[in-house]
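Q: Start with the shorter request: fold the first protein.
A: Done. Sequence, then structure:
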Amino acid sequence: MSKIGFDVLAWSAGVSEDLLPIMDRLKNIGYDGVEFFIGAPDVSDYKRLGQHAKDIDLEVTAVTVVGPEENPIDPSPTVRAKAVERLKWIIDRCHDLNAEVLAGPTHSAFATFAQQAPQESEYDWSAEVLRKAGDYAAQTNLIITPEALNRFECYLCNSMEQLKHLLQKVNHPNVKGMFDTHHANIEEKKLDEAIHTIAPYLAHVHISENDRGTPGTGHIPWDEVFSTLAKSKYDGWYTIEGFTRNDVDFANSINVWREFAHPWDMAEKGFKFIQEMIQKHAV
């Protein structure tokens, strides 16, 4: 059965006790789960949030990125080995959070570009790293879902066709795919065709408006998205990922220069919107 989640990046990329009342309110709205960004170094904070989520019966997913010093597609075997170790550390933090899914562009370093189109050797390197990460994730039944990002944030996987190509190389039961409506709005010609492409591998969905504001207020063709997901028998997470300037350092790092929506407006209206769309397109 599908579940609805909310990514707390709308408030903070950190993990601290400041998120506890936010988790409580998300639970009261009706959310099934909360998504945290994994990046902060303090291990105890992840355990504290994971325990609180368990205490209030809120499920957890996670999202992350890797940097150029741990790039899974770097030509250097030493750097790629660092990518494996970094992903293992991130997987450990998922365990601390009791997370069931790890989303994000784990296939390559965020906003790190080569002066060429993606090479087959880079897909091979990425697949090797993700396969090792999948082996490690299997110990706690975590599913890793690499994410295709738009062309301004990565180059290895911009489309569902590219992501499918990578996942076929990985060929691991704990490494599947995800679909983000914001990135697809930029990169895909037809969203229904993109969903059909990734459907056999799909394990996570980010519900993101075209401007990263409240879902349902922009020009994403939501009826097409939810109808196609329903026909594809998708029954995983529908997690809202919207951004604000609440966390200035994070906002600057992803080029968010203005406010698209208030976080609680996004959370309250977005939850109702997703409920309505799931019910409308139930098959």
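Q: Next, the second protein, separately.
A: Sequence, then structure:
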Amino acid sequence: MRQVASLETSRFTLRSLRMEDAAALYPTLSNDAQCLYLTRPAFTSEEELWGWLAEPGWNGRTWIAEDADGNVAGRFVAVPGHQAGVEEIGYVTCMDRQGEGIARECTGALVEHLFATGTRKLTAEVDIDNAPSIRLLERLGFTREALFREHETTHAGLRDVAVYGLLARERG
């Protein structure tokens, strides 16, 4: 598990993943409706979730959003792309905290951090039916670059996937 630089927003600290975060994320990631757009089905135990979160072979980085009271609000990730300077981002907000603007605030902070540390382009893949995620990406300035029809087979079946991108030079 890779350590990450701590990031601050007005309401959250984004910090490295800890084992106890599996318990905080489990109610969301064990819920079928919340996992509709994941590439895998909902988790069936905290142990299974921890194994996925802390997968030793995964080359990405995880930030956990924690509020001032120490409550976990979401998970934010960056995964190196196939080209130097390109990273893919991802995010999930805990279901009991959705609608508070957490994804926008914390993803925005992650975007700024990644660009400030030398990333030249960010991408995000999103199920074409995931309207909230598409709205978030567009609010952050991402542009839809591609649509891959019947591109990914998930627990929900064969899915269309849109790829969004944002270049460092496009940030305001």
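Q: Describe the second briefly.
A: The mean pLDDT is 95. Helices lie at 21-29, 46-53, 102-116, 131-139.
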